[in-house]
C-alpha cells in the first residue's frame, strides 16, 4: 500500500472513531501568540452565526481565557458539520509582564500577564481533555519551526486528534506557505488571510470535509 | 538571579549551575516528579539538560505547571529547546504509520526564560547563550 493511501486510511480511522456521534465537535483553535487565532475565530463565527467570538488586538495575549462559540454549522459542497469553536490563548512557555508596559500601566500589565498564564494553562489542560479536533493557526510570515510549535503539534499527534494547519496572514509580503508545508508535511496546510477574508471558501471546505 | 551554588560563601563563586540529568535517573520517575525536578532546578537559576527528553504528555504538563508558577518580578517562565526528532525516530502520525517507535531519546535543554537565549538550533546542535543577570 502506498504511503499516501496509508496516511489517508489512518486519518480516516482517527476521524471515524472520534466523529461518529452526531453532537457538535469541539474544535480548538491553537497556535502561538499573535498568529491570528481570534481573528479567524471571529471570521468563522460571523460568517456562520453573525456574532463574533472575542476582541482582537496587535498586543500579544489579547485572548487570555478560552472562549467558546457553540453550534456553528458550516456547510460546503454537500458536506456539513456543526462545531463548537474554542478560541484559546496563544501557547508559550514564558510570559513577562514588562513586555506590556509600553502599552499600559504596570498594574494592568501584571493583571494581563497573570490572566495570560492562567489561560495558557487552561488551554493545555483542555487540549488533553476537552477538544475533539484542532485547527492550528500559524503566521505565514514567521518561521514555523519553533519549540512551542513542534511541541504542540507533537502533543496533538500523540492524542490522535485530527488537525488542520492554517497558514494565516498570506496577505503579508513575507508570507511563505511552503515554509509551513515543509515544516509539517504530515498535515494538510491551508493558506488564508483571516483578516482579509482570503481563501475562506477553501477553509470552510476543509473544515466541513475533515471534521464533518 | 542565578545562585552561586555548592558553596556557603555568599560572595561567590558567581556562576551558572548546569544539571545534566541521565535517562536512567528519569526512567522510574512519575510525570510530576520529573516536572518538579526540572522546575525546581530552573527556579534556582540552573540550566537543566535532559539526556532523554519528555513525552508529549509530559511536555504538555510542563507548560501547564510552568504557567501556574509564573509570578511578576520573580519567575517569567522557561526556555526549552530540543533537537528536532529524526526521521527514523518520528513519533508523528506519519512516523507511526511508517513503523517508527515513539521515543523520547532527544536531548533537551531547559532554563529560566530571563537567562537563556537560543542563538542557533539545527538537527545536531543547540547553541545557547546563558546570561548571569
From TrEMBL, chain A:
Pfam family, one: MMR_HSR1
Signal peptide, first to last residue: none
GO terms, biological process: tRNA methylation; tRNA wobble uridine modification
UniProt cross-references to InterPro entries, sorted A to Z: AAA+_ATPase, GTP-bd, P-loop_NTPase, Small_GTP-bd
Residue ranges of domain AAA+ ATPase in the record: 23-176
GO MF entries: GTP binding
Entries under Gene3D superfamilies matching the protein: P-loop containing nucleotide triphosphate hydrolases
Highest taxon, organism lineage: Archaea
GO cellular component: cytoplasm
Protein name: GTP-binding protein
TrEMBL record, chain B:
InterPro entries for this protein: OapB-like
Organism: Haloterrigena salina JCM 13891
Superkingdom of the organism of origin: Archaea
Pfam families: OapB
Protein name, per record: DUF2073 domain-containing protein
